[in-house]
Structure formats: C-alpha cells, structure tokens
Amino acid sequence: MHLAAILKGKPFQPISPASMPDPRDRALANRIVTTAMRRHGHISLVLDDLLKKGVPDRAGPLEAVLRTGIAQLLYMEGIPAHSALHLSVEAARRDKRSGRFDKLVNGVLRQAQRDAEKFAALDPILLLPDWLAKGWIKTFGAEAVNKFCVALLEGAPLDLTLKRYDKDLVDALGGELVIGNSIRVNTRESVIADLPGFAEGKWWVQDAAATLGARLINAGKGMRVLDLCAAPGGKTAQLASMGADVVALDIDENRLERLAQNMDRLGFAPEVVVADALAYEPDEKFDAVLLDAPCSATGTFRRHPEVLWQRDAGGIAERVRIQRAMVSHALDLLKPGGLLVYCVCSLESEEGEDQARWALEQFKSIALAPVSADELDGWVEPITSQGTVRTHPGLAVPGSAGGTLDGFFIARFVKN
User: Fold this and answer.
1) What Å distances lie between residue 72 and 43, 144, 299, CA to CA?
2) Could you tell me which residue ranges the SAM-dependent MTase RsmB/NOP-type domain spans (predicted)?
C-alpha cells in the first residue's frame, strides 16, 4: 500500500499510470494519500483517542488503512461514508496480517464518523510535529506558523520558469507572473506534458522560491558556473538560459539522467558530471558556484508533507556537518573574486542563517555579498537585514498570482 511505504520513511511519489491505469481512479487515490499525509498530525490524535493501546503490532498495512479511512471520512468531501468504510475494510483484508483486524477497522472508523464534530475542532498547529512548531514559532512568529498550517492543507500550486518571457504563452497556460520569468498556474486540467509549450521546451517546472539562488549569480555569456547537486536541473536551466557555461554535477546517476532529458527538451547543453561533490577536482576553477546543499527539505512541506514526520533533530545535525564540508570544498573550486551562492530548501536556522555566520567566521577569504531589492525586482520582504534571503510558506508571492512559496535560505559570498 502506497501510504504504508511512506510511513516507513519512503518519499512520496505520485501513483503512476503503470500501477493504476484509469486516470480518475489514480487522481482519487493520490488525493486520498496526500490528504492523509497533510492531515497526519490530526489523524495521529484521532488514532490516539480511538485506539488506547495504539495500532496493534505485526499488523502489516493496518495503520495506513486506518489513516486513509479517517482521511476520507473526516477530511474529504464527495466520498460517501459507506464507500470509505467498505473500501477500508476490504483493503485490510487484502493482507493476511491486517485482515485479522477487519472488525477493528470497521469499529474505529465508525466511531471516528460519530465523533467527527469533535475531531473537526482540533487546533491547526497540531498538524505540525511539536518540536518543529516550537522552533518555527520562535524563528518566524506565531502568525507566520499559522499560515504554514494553511499552506500545508492547501498544497503547492504549479510554478513554471519560462526560457523567455512570452505573454501569449503565459495567457495560454492561464498563468500569472510571480518574479523574473517565473509564472504561477493555479488551476490546470491537463497533465504537465500536455500543457502549451512543454514539447517545444519553452519552460520547466520550478517553485518560484527555487529560482532565486541562480538569479543572484547574474550569470553572463561565457561565465563558467558550477551547479553542485544539480539534479533535476531547474537551476542548471536558469544558468544556461543566461548564457553561462554550466557544469552540472550530482552524485546520483539516475537523477542526472532525468536532468539530461530535461536539458535535451529545453535545448541546453551543459557539461554533466556524475561525481561526489566533495571529491570533485576540475582542471579549471569557476567564476561562480551554486551550492544547493543537501538538507532536511522542511521548506518543501507544501508539496512533500511527509518531510514533517520523517525528520528529526539528529538528522539535521548530520546534514549540517555535510553542508559545511561542501561549503569548504566549493570555495576551493572558486577563482579569486568568484561568487558562491549557498542555498537550502530548509526552514531550520541551523542549515541556513547559522551556516552563513559559520562560513564568515571560518573563512577569512570570503565576504558576504548582500542581496538588494533591485535584484529581486523590488521584492523586499524576503531580504534579511544581513542581506541574505529567507522565504517561507507564510510569505505571499509578489504580483497578482497569489499563494505562498517554498521555504528557502540563500546567502551569497564573494571570494577575496
């Protein structure tokens, strides 16, 4: 069962046509799974209330069955209660381990239905793990974190980066300009590959916040730029579209294959390198390095709600260690006067603001290159007093597109 794998730590991947050919069934199944993930915090409290001894051990996918059943009964419109109950019991029976508890499934879900009004009154902040909620309130404030909860339930709209701005294409896509060549499509009826301009390589999928790091390099024709941890290639495409000579490096060969396919569709030809970023030793140093470092990815919870429950403080500490090693090596790959742009799709200050302070204290050969509002088309809200950039899912996008964006931290350094 799809949700069962996610509960064991697997990342969410939408159910594919190969495993569920009917598009209507597939869309509904994906909606049920994503609702169960977005409501994970509330559903945990429901289960705690109704199962005083917890979910039985050695019960196979029982927890996933209960969570999807509760998601349908309490948090999804348009699904008849009898259908949700019947399908949940049948899903439990498909596995010998959970099938023993079919009566339990029926009883728990019926009680959840009877107590629906009580569970509807749960505080939205309980959607978040306690340790993250407390840290985020301290960093961003309670008002912003309340908006995080709204953004979690709403999910992420579709953001596209245009190779070149084209008003007719924007109109055909039903999009609104966000910043630079980034547009937002709030509603769509077609799959990505069927949208106008996809086959012709006129755009790629990329959250508006994710565009800012490459933008701050201000790459020009002939500029030699290294995109570290490049896959799936959104930032590589941005740099190539500016005319830079880009080296796209990643350790994951499969992800780089996807990058290469994207570049081929877009008509770009960066040098693609499969290598460990910490061991990469090129013959020539670079004018700029874009380091989108491996991180907790907590800033992406609108599209990947599972990260909220798959992360812990210990894992963040290990990522901090790797990030510091990568910053150190990235500086070695820079020419004098070169730029390092460090970014993470994390909301944790340990991976963002604290790392910028550490780098300035550790390396006397670098200085912070503050970001100005002009570089973000006059958008001042994400720029901190230090001249770094901090976006989060409680921050509204500029322009008329509406909605929020992923959480990113970006710092730009110049090597003296």
Assistant:
1) 11, 28, 27
2) 136-416
Q: 398 and 272: one domain?
A: yes
Domain end point (choices 87, 122, 157): 122
Asked whether the predicted pLDDT for residue 40 surpasses 90, the reply is yes
Q: Are 96 and 39 in contact (CB under 8 A)?
A: no
What's the pLDDT at 211?
A: 97
The pLDDT of 212-223, averaged and rounded, is: 95
Q: Is 251 left (phi over 0), alpha (psi -120 to 50) or beta?
A: alpha
305 and 403 share one domain: yes
Q: pLDDT tens for residues 301-323?
A: 999 999 999 999 889 999 999 99
Residue 402: how many CB atoms within 10 A of its CB?
A: 12
User: Which amino acids are annotated as binding site for S-adenosyl-L-methionine, given as ranges?
Assistant: 229-235, 250, 276, 292
Domain containing 91 — which CATH number? 1.10.940.10
Please check whether residue 367 is in contact with residue 412, taking contact to mean a CB–CB distance below 8 angstroms. no
Domain boundary among 90, 122, 154: 122
Is 178 domain-assigned? no
pLDDT of residue 18: 84
Asked if residue 103 is part of any domain, the answer here is yes
- Residue 61: inside a domain: yes
Count the domains in the chain.
Answer: 2
**The whole model's pTM is what?**
0.94
Q: What's CA 200's distance to the chain center, in Å?
A: 26
Containing domain of residue 63, as a range?
Answer: 2-122
pLDDT digits (tens, 9 = 90+) for 80-99: 999 999 999 999 999 999 99
Which amino acid is it at 259?
L
Indicate whether 257 and 389 sit together in one domain.
Answer: yes
Feature table: binding site: 229-235, 250, 276, 292
Residues marked active site are found at 345
Strands 389-391 and 158-162: unpaired
DSSP characters for 189-249?
SS-GGGSTTTTTT-EEE--GGGGHHHHTT---TT-EEEEET-TT-HHHHHHHHTT-EEEEE
* Contacts for 23 with CB less than 8 Å, ≥ 6 apart: 17
- 288 located within any domain: yes
**pLDDT category of residue 264 using cuts at 50, 70 and 90:** very high
Q: Kindly state whether residues 390 and 274 are assigned to the same domain.
A: yes
User: Which residues are bridge partners to 368 per DSSP?
Assistant: 413
| Tokens read off for 101 | 């508890």
Same domain, 233 and 330: yes
